[in-house]
Design brief:
Length: about 230
């Protein structure tokens, strides 16, 4: 009887359940401890900035082309206005982003120096921390690409269409579809409702194009024309 009880206790003591989830969790924790985690927040911020830059390029150039199209039926003035908006906007975005990020970098460098001046061996830590600072040249280049990508869309939409009213209609349609896509992408990156975000971006683009169209037509009807 005692032997049977001893065997039963021995068998029970050996039955330790091991689940696959426990193994996966341990491996996941090990990867995090080894520093293999990815900074998805920083990546999302860059992507979100790119989407906003493309949206800005789209709305700016489309509004310019709509404004010129309200007083000129010829395609050449519309395209010239679109290209001028592309070049001016891309340069403005690049310079603005460069100055902004460079200022932020200088502030962070100064803060790092103040903190490391009070530490032992702070110079080595300072060099490592500087490597993780934002790059103003990279930010400026990314802004140019994002703005240009959005600005090219209305230019391509209207470049090969001769009838004036059809050209304006296609321009509005392409801009609207692109705005919806930008709104959805921005919502996904920002973890916000997709429908509300896309509608907000779309309505904002429509308002910008409508105001530019209406005011330019008003000015043009009063005698100030190209």
């Amino acid at each position: 009887m005692a032997a049977a009880t001893h065997n039963q206790l021995s068998n029970n003591s050996l039955e330790i359940p091991i689940y696959a989830n426990d193994i996966m969790d341990s491996k996941h924790c090990q990867k995090i401890e080894e520093g293999e985690n990815v900074d998805y927040f920083q990546r999302a911020q860059w992507l979100r900035a790119a989407v906003l830059g493309a949206n800005d390029g789209l709305v700016s150039v489309a509004s310019l082309m709509m404004g010129v199209g309200s007083v000129k039926e010829d395609i050449k003035p519309m395209l010239l206005a679109g290209f001028a908006g592309l070049f001016a906007g891309a340069c403005s975005m690049a310079i603005g982003e460069f100055v902004s990020v460079y200022t932020q970098r200088d502030i962070e460098v100064a803060q790092i120096k103040r903190e490391n001046s009070m530490k032992v061996g702070g110079e080595n830590e300072e060099e490592g921390e500087k490597e993780n600072l934002p790059n103003p040249f990279q930010a400026a280049f990314a802004s140019v690409l994002a703005f240009s990508a959005g600005a090219v869309m209305p230019l391509l939409a209207a470049a090969f269409i001769k009838p004036h009213k059809v050209r304006l209609g296609v321009l509005i349609l392409v801009a609207s579809l692109a705005l919806v896509v930008f709104g959805i992408v921005g919502a996904v990156l920002g973890k916000t409702p997709k429908v509300k975000s896309s509608i907000r971006v779309l309505v904002g683009g429509w308002v910008a194009m409508a105001i530019t169209f209406g005011l330019t037509k008003l000015i043009g009807s009063n005698g100030l024309q190209m």
